[in-house]
Fold this sequence. Notes:
Layout: H1 2-29, H2 38-59, H3 63-66, H4 69-87, H5 89-94, H6 100-130
Amino acid sequence: MIKKIFVIVSVFLVLGFLGYQVHSYIFTQIHKEPAFSLLKLYKFNTGFSLLVCINIVLLSNVNKIAEQLGFIYLGALLLKILLFVATFYVSIIKKDILQTVDKISMLITVFVFLSTELFFVIKLINQKQSI
């Protein structure tokens, strides 16, 4: 269990750091300032994905809850969406017009973290079902 948590933490921290560096480099190359804080976006996605995955690892060791991990993940995903909208409400909703570059960069960040998170959760659920 400790090894799984260490791998998850390592992957998300490296993904967050490298993603932020590449993303900010691209924005400097196109001479554009994003409509939102890139650092805040990456901190949110890294932190929440870490929290979800570590909780799924911990909950997978509880026999009564292990069967419900998929539903727990769906609830966590809904919570993540709600907190994301609440956190970036001013950047997303209140802005008159978000440029296409801003929309695409936000979506890419969300989908990269979501797909990585989903990879770990599916792997954990499949390990529990095969036991």
